[in-house]
Design a protein that fits this description.
This protein is 37% helix and 27% strand. The protein is α/β, with parallel strands linked by helices. The strands form 2 sheets. It has a 9-stranded mixed sheet, with helices on both faces. Strands 3-2-6-7 form a 4-stranded mixed sheet.
C-alpha cells in the first residue's frame, strides 16, 4: 500500500563540507573529513530521523561529491528522486575552519566555494520536472530558506514559484538563514526579499542575530508585529526560543547539553518543530521536540544529525 503519511519536501542546495580533524587555522590543517551540508538538506535528514517522510528537490554535479550527497540522503531515509544531476557544473562545497573557545566548545567559520555550482542553476524548470512536481503535489509541507534566492536569478525564480504555487492545505516553511557573503554588494535587496518571503510563509524561523541583521530587531514581540502573516513564528537564540501560533505564545529554554559546535543546530531545530506540527503536537510540544533534535546537532562538528 502507498505511504499516506505527511510528506515534507525541502528545496535548496546540498553542499560538501570539508571539516578539519583538528581545531586550528586552515593553513595548519592537513586532514579534512568529508560530510553532507546545506541548510535544507540538514533539515531534511533531521526530519527523516524524526520519522517524517521526506524528500529533497535540488541539483548536484555529475561528480563524486554529487554521488556522495545523493547516497547520504538515501542512507538517511530521504527521497533523492528529484535531485537533478548536472553534466557540466560541479557540486558546491565549503570548508569549515574550527577555532577552540574558552568554554571548551568550538567556533566554526564557513568558507564557501559554490559559485557556478549545479544548484545555482535551480530554476522553475527544476520544480516542474516530473519527479519534483510529483513530490510537490503530494507535499504537506515545503521547506526552504533565504539562502536559495541568493544563489542566482534562476534560483530566486524557483523560490518565487514555490511561494506562488497554489497551496491548498500545504504549509510553506521559511528559515531566514541570512548569509551576508552571498548578498555582498546587494544587502538591501536581499533583506527586502527575505522580508517578503517571511510575510508569505506559514512557518517562519529566524535566529535573533539574523533578525537583528535583516529586520532591525530581535525582540520577539516586535517581530510578531512586523510579521503577523505566518501562522507560526519562531525566534531562537542560544538560551532558548519564543514560539507563536497565531496569538498564542510560548517560551522554552534550550536543553542543558555539552556543546561541541553550533553549525547545523538551527536546521535540526526547524526539523524538530516541523515534525511536531506535522504529527499534531501542540505549540509547546513541537517546541520541545525542536530542542531535543537540535541537541543532536550540537554534539559534533558535522552539520547534520545522525
Amino acid at each position: 500500500m502507498p505511504d499516506t503519511s505527511p510528506l515534507a519536501v525541502c528545496v535548496g542546495e546540498g553542499l560538501i563540507s570539508l571539516v578539519p580533524v583538528a581545531a586550528a587555522p586552515l593553513e595548519d590543517c592537513k586532514t579534512f573529513r568529508r560530510s553532507l551540508a546545506g541548510a535544507e538538506w540538514n533539515t531534511a535528514i533531521a526530519l527523516a530521523s524524526a520519522g517524517i517522510r521526506t524528500a529533497v528537490v535540488s541539483r548536484v554535479g555529475d561528480d563524486g561529491f554529487g554521488r556522495f550527497l545523493r547516497s547520504e540522503l538515501r542512507d538517511h531515509g530521504v527521497d533523492d528522486s528529484a535531485v537533478e544531476v548536472d553534466p557540466d557544473a560541479p557540486t558546491g562545497l565549503y570548508v569549515k575552519e574550527l577555532s577552540p573557545l574558552p568554554d571548551g566548545s568550538i567556533d566554526g567559520t564557513m568558507h564557501y566555494y559554490r559559485k557556478g555550482s549545479a544548484a545555482s542553476a535551480l530554476s522553475p524548470g527544476t520544480l516542474a520536472s516530473p519527479a519534483a512536481s510529483a513530490l510537490l503535489d503530494q507535499a504537506a509541507l515545503v521547506h526552504t530558506s533565504g539562502i536559495t534566492p541568493a544563489l542566482s536569478a534562476s534560483a530566486r525564480a524557483a523560490q518565487d514559484a514555490l511561494f506562488d504555487a497554489p497551496r491548498g492545505e500545504r504549509l510553506v516553511s521559511f528559515d531566514v538563514n541570512w548569509r551576508p557573503a552571498l548578498w555582498r554588494g546587494r544587502e538591501d535587496e536581499g533583506k527586502a526579499l527575505i522580508a517578503a518571503y517571511a510575510r508569505r510563509s506559514d512557518v517562519l524561523f529566524c535566529t535573533r542575530p539574523d533578525a537583528e541583521a535583516v529586520f532591525g530587531t530581535s525582540d520577539p514581540d516586535r517581530l510578531r508585529e512586523l510579521f503577523p502573516e505566518p501562522r507560526y513564528l519562531l525566534a531562537t537564540h542560544a538560551r532558548g526560543a519564543e514560539a507563536f501560533d497565531g496569538s498564542e505564545r510560548t517560551h522554552s529554554d534550550a536543553l542543558d547539553v555539552a556543546v561541541v559546535e553550533t553549525i547545523g543546530a538551527g536546521d535540526a531545530f526547524a526539523a524538530g518543530f516541523l515534525a511536531g506540527i506535522l504529527t499534531g503536537l501542540s505549540l509547546s510540544g513541537s517546541l520541545s521536540r525542536a530542542h531535543r533534535i537540535a541537541t543532536r546537532a550540537l554534539a559534533s562538528t558535522r552539520d547534520h544529525v545522525d
